[in-house]
Structure formats: structure tokens, C-alpha cells
């Protein structure tokens, strides 16, 4: 006879795998773009991201740092199982980054950028919901 832990809902293996795939893909994207904004000269970045010449350099670097931290936060706490709830909070932070990016692009008349920002925000929101509510990873 086995005892079930009633306080912990059963989640499917498929959901965990889906969340991990989303986490890895989103983390790879944010780590790459974050490193790019941190390491490349603004003049070189301007060829790929025209908006960087319209804002102070420290803002470009701060955004890069936020993206890098968010990307690492999607993986490291969950993989190490040390404070794994931080993965969900990192995802929420990335939702905020993408919502703010959408507003920024709208103010610049770059509406074509907004759908991609919102899709990325939605993926991050699914990760946050999954790791904070539906399929949290247990700490060590």
C-alpha cells in the first residue's frame, strides 16, 4: 500500500518536459540577446537594433543585464533545485521586460515589433504559471 501526498497535486511528465523545453529555448534567446547588449559596442548594435542610438548607453546595458539575469534565472534555480521558485519569478520578470519593450516600440511607431514581444511575454507567462502554480519543482 502506498501513501499519496494529498497536498502535492500530480502533474504530468509531458507538462514538465514542455516547461523545460520552453525554459531552455527562452533562456537561450535571452542569454544571447543579453550578452549581445552587454558586450557589443552601441555603434555595432545599432545595425541590428536601431533603437539603441535613441536611448542612453547605460539603458542598453541595463536591459542586457536584465535579459541575461532573466535567462539564467529560467534555468539555474530549477536545474539546481536551490530556490526553484526563482525560476517562476524570473519568468515574471521577463514578462515585464517584454511588456515594457512593447510599450517602448509603440511609442517609436514600431508596431511591427509588438506581436513578437507579446508572444515572448506569453511564453514567459506560461513558464511562470507552470513553475509557480501547476508544476513547481521541489527544492532539495
TrEMBL record:
Record keywords: Membrane, Transmembrane, Transmembrane helix
One GO cellular component term noted in the UniProt record for this chain: membrane
Main location per the UniProt record: membrane
Listed transmembrane segments: 17-38, 58-79, 86-106, 112-133
Subcellular location: Membrane
Membrane topology recorded in Swiss-Prot or TrEMBL: Multi-pass membrane protein
Cited Pfam families: DoxX_2
Protein name in UniProt: DoxX family protein
Organism from which the protein derives: Deinococcus cellulosilyticus (strain DSM 18568 / NBRC 106333 / KACC 11606 / 5516J-15)
Amino acid at each position: 500500500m502506498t501513501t499519496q501526498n494529498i497536498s502535492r497535486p500530480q502533474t504530468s511528465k509531458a507538462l514538465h518536459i514542455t516547461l523545460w523545453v520552453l525554459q531552455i529555448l527562452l533562456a537561450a534567446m535571452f542569454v544571447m540577446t543579453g550578452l549581445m547588449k552587454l558586450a557589443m559596442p552601441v555603434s555595432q548594435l545599432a545595425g541590428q537594433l536601431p533603437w539603441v542610438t535613441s536611448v542612453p548607453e547605460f539603458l542598453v546595458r541595463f536591459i542586457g543585464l536584465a535579459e541575461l539575469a532573466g535567462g539564467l534565472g529560467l534555468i539555474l534555480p530549477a536545474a539546481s533545485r536551490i530556490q526553484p521558485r526563482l525560476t517562476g519569478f524570473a519568468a515574471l520578470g521577463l514578462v515585464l521586460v517584454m511588456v515594457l519593450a512593447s510599450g517602448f516600440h509603440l511609442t517609436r511607431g514600431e508596431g511591427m515589433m509588438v506581436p513578437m514581444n507579446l508572444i515572448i511575454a506569453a511564453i514567459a507567462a506560461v513558464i511562470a504559471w507552470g513553475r509557480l502554480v501547476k508544476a513547481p519543482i521541489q527544492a532539495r
